[in-house]
Specification:
The structure holds three protein chains of three kinds. Chain B is of the alpha+beta class. Chain B is built from seven helices and eleven strands. Chain C folds into three domains: about 5-55; about 55-105, no CATH class; about 105-145, no CATH class. Chain C has eight helices and no strands. Classes of the chains: A mainly alpha, B alpha+beta, C mainly alpha. Chains A and B meet through helix 1 and helix 5 of A and strand 3, helix 3 and helix 4 of B.
Chain lengths: ~400, ~250, ~150
């Protein structure tokens, strides 16, 4: 008991002393945010015909899929009874925001991402099916559903349906991540979370993180394959990142100013928390290093003529800082919301374990896993044009 | 406002609160649902509690009895009911000094130096058995619910351990039982009250500071108590339909 | 493929796959939802019986008074008359079930009485409180006060 109370300052309700949601729950909105953001970037090309970002289209879709496959894992891992999680599908409580996760997730995974990727890649899949042999042949055959029709008429149909799916996909991406914000924003007991701005702030920071992630993945893959960067594409993506970031930053500042000006019953406690236990992660990492600095860097590239090399470096640095900043934002929402007592009279702190079920190690593994999945996906479904290999030569 | 009028308004207000909870229960009756237990009709009851701050002496009997009766984990710091100790400077309601050493389980240490200008009192806490309960609202699978007789219960064989309900409770009444990895909370001694007994905390309260009440039983003294006292629920701004009514609750209590 | 399905064969297969998935889910759900779920509300009706099934620890005052009529008499009119027996004597359902085999232990007055009656500013003003150290010479409270009827007459 003494050890539990060591971290407590002031008064907390006794049951509040232990934090309920740790780093795994920080990962969950971070990963789903990357999914939603990557998808929205992909849809720019498809729906709004932004030719310049075309090189990132398929890459963005695969990135979204890789992260979406990982998104439920941290949730699953933190449950007291993971084996009961199917109950979310069996008896979903319609009044519960969380119950809808299963359905929003399945809709997004199956109807939006898998279908759209399948339709977009179908021609390539059929061609690879024809070219390959052995187990690979079977795999591509299964992916093509053993239908090798790639007549122009069928491909035109695929394209039409794919476009329609993207149109449905945009509100779905908004739904997916706005909904994650709603899970927090709708908890009236917690003033740090409870604001109608929460879904919107989550959504825009998701778009920001998704664009930054795809931009970085594009740069890394191009460098890996020793290809020249498509600077037109990079400049456009970076510009979108800048605009999305501006909106995101304004929204977060609006939330902050509103809280300070309104100064309701919870303000004194929250203000104290931000100035003490949350100072590093909120003020230094999230706002300063993760928002103002990358925003300034991206803004500079818009204002000043720079060499390609300088721009590349700035984009890479800004991208990394952005991801750190958005991760810190998720951290500050999830962890910050549990550091103060609902009596507003006391504070606790979060002690992260390392190699436990809800510790840092599984969190790191869960952050690496999507990149492994992405590597496999890229190998299975190359997002760029591959030179047809001669038969028999394996890659 | 003249005192008569004020008293009338307060009474009417209370009656309104009561009839609101009664009407919710009435719907359950009208629906004509079957009953499973013998000698106990869920639709005949609507449970709540009265806590009289003015007579609570902070002996901790309720905390100890609850732990025994309900096998509540002793470590590290989990409580279905606990007692808080307040010190308030009379003109500064916003900055009370509060503590609850081991939830009041061992009673409270005596303090030698006492500031006569400061207001002192105990506040026993437990689940408020809200009928518009935010914890029930957020449960994704239906593992926690308001029973037809108005008690918020947990289905321990069905709970995922997602802890969303712990976050949603404004009063800090829920915790994860480390032995089962499911959520745990006050059941209002459901196994006792459905057998005609009172809760373990009320049974052992030496001063009658806690009184279980059946809001659907017209003969229950709770009606008289609610009529004759100025009662409040905790955090009324949360609008949770709390059914634990406090008499003598100070404005500084959170 | 022929006819109108000519260029839609792959889509039909995908649609079939989805239809199969949804049907399999509905069947799975139909099989897996626990019995009694939704009878009273969005929960398993059996959970109410589970909550009722917990064994008692405190027998309740009525149970005690059924046998200990002498104590009921002794307490009549006393200031301790309204206190539940198990508030001081502890949980005694086992004694109530097997009165001769299981005997309760006598509570320690120096702990029990002091807990309620030691002077403490948090206690309500009208409640009888003493500074225990000044009040007695460390003797047992019961030397002067009878626990069931504490007033010294």
């Amino acid at each position: 008991m003494e050890s539990v109370l060591q971290s407590v300052q002031g008064f907390m309700y006794p049951n509040e002393v232990e934090l309920q949601w740790g780093i795994l729950i920080v990962l969950y909105p971070f990963t789903t945010g990357l999914v939603a953001g990557a998808f929205i970037l992909a849809s720019l090309e498809r729906v709004f015909n932004v030719e310049a970002v075309k090189p990132t289209y398929r890459l963005a879709l695969l990135t979204a899929l890789a992260f979406l496959l990982v998104a439920p894992l941290p949730l699953q891992l933190h449950l007291g009874h993971p084996e009961r999680s199917l109950e979310m599908y069996l008896t979903p409580h319609t009044e519960s925001a969380m119950a809808m996760f299963g359905f929003v997730y399945l809709w997004y995974l199956m109807v939006v991402l898998v279908l759209e990727i399948w339709l977009d890649y179908r021609k390539d899949i059929v061609l690879m099916w024809r070219d390959s042999s052995g187990p690979t042949r079977w795999l591509y055959g299964a992916m093509a559903l053993w239908s090798d029709n790639i007549s122009p008429a069928s491909l035109a149909l695929d394209d039409r349906i794919g476009r329609a799916l993207t149109v449905i996909g945009i509100p779905s991406a908004f739904l997916l991540h706005g909904y994650v914000g709603f899970i927090f924003g709708s908890v009236k007991a917690n003033p740090w979370w409870s604001t109608p701005l929460m879904p919107i702030v989550f959504l825009f920071s998701a778009i920001v993180s998704g664009i930054a992630a795809v931009m970085l993945v594009y740069m890394v893959t191009a460098w890996w394959r020793e290809r020249a960067f498509d600077m037109g594409c990079l400049d456009t993506v970076a510009r979108y990142l800048f605009y999305a970031f501006l909106i995101d930053f304004s929204l977060e500042m609006l939330d902050l100013i509103h809280r300070i000006y309104e100064a309701d019953e919870s303000f004194r406690a929250l203000d104290f928390m931000v100035h003490t236990r949350l100072y590093t992660s909120q003020v230094l990492v999230q706002i300063l290093a993760g928002t103002i600095v990358p925003l300034g860097m991206l803004g500079l590239t818009q204002l000043v003529q720079m060499s390609e090399k300088a721009r590349r470096r700035i984009y890479a640095m800004a991208g990394v800082l952005t991801l750190i900043g958005v991760f810190a934002m998720r951290w500050n929402v999830v962890i910050g919301g549990q550091l103060f007592s609902k009596s507003f009279l006391g504070y606790t702190s979060y002690k992260m374990n390392f190699a436990t079920r809800e510790g840092l190690l599984p969190a790191i593994l869960l952050l690496i896993l999507p990149f492994v999945i992405l590597a496999v996906l890229i190998r299975l479904l190359p997002p760029w044009k591959v030179q047809r290999r001669g038969a028999g030569v394996s890659g | 406002m003249n005192p008569d009028r004020r008293a009338f308004l307060q009474k009417t207000g209370k009656l309104l609160v009561l009839s609101a909870s009664a009407s919710v229960a009435w719907e359950a009756i009208v629906a004509g649902r079957p009953e499973t237990a013998e000698n106990y009709k869920m639709s005949d009851h609507w449970w709540g509690m009265v806590i009289d701050i003015d007579v609570c002496i902070g002996c901790g009997n309720c905390v100890r009895a609850c732990k025994v009766e309900n096998d509540v984990p002793r470590e590290p710091l989990f409580f279905r009911t606990w007692v808080e100790r307040y010190q308030v400077t009379p003109d500064d309601l916003e900055h009370p000094t509060v503590d609850s050493p081991n939830g009041g389980y061992d009673g409270f240490p005596v303090q030698d130096k006492v500031d006569e200008k400061v207001k002192h009192f105990y506040v026993p806490k437990l689940c408020n058995h809200c009928h518009q309960s935010p914890c029930v609202q957020v449960c994704p699978v239906g593992a926690t619910f308001v029973s037809p007789d108005g008690v918020v219960l947990v289905d321990k064989t069905y709970c995922l351990g997602c802890r969303y309900c712990v976050q949603a409770c404004p009063y800090g009444c829920r915790f994860i039982d480390p032995r089962t990895q499911t959520v745990d909370k006050c059941t209002l001694c459901y196994h006792r009250i459905t057998k005609g007994l009172t809760t373990a905390c009320c049974e052992t309260c030496p001063t009658g500071a806690r009184q279980l009440g059946d809001l659907k039983n017209p003969k229950d003294p709770i009606h008289e108590f609610l009529r004759d006292h100025h009662v409040l629920v905790l955090k009324p701004q949360m609008a949770t339909g709390a059914k634990v009514y406090y008499n003598g609750l100070d404005g500084s209590v959170r | 493929m022929s006819g109108w399905l000519k260029d839609k064969g792959h889509l039909a297969r995908m649609a079939g796959l989805f239809a199969f998935g949804i049907t399999a889910f509905l069947v799975f759900r139909w099989v897996m939802v626990p019995p009694g779920f939704g009878l009273y509300g969005h929960y398993r009706a059996g959970a109410l019986d589970d909550a009722r099934a917990r064994p008692l620890q405190y027998a309740g005052r009525a149970e005690c008074e059924g046998c200990h009529t002498d104590i009921v008499e002794a307490r009549q009119g006393s200031r301790h008359a309204r206190i539940g027996c198990e508030a001081c004597h502890g949980p005694l359902i086992k004694h109530a079930q097997a009165p001769t085999e299981i005997k309760p232990t006598r509570p320690d007055g120096r702990v029990l009485c002091v807990r309620c009656h030691e002077t403490n500013p948090w206690k309500p003003k009208g409640f009888p409180q003493v500074k225990v150290a000044d009040h007695s010479d460390n003797g047992p409270c019961t030397a002067c006060h009878k626990a069931h009827a504490p007033k010294i007459s």
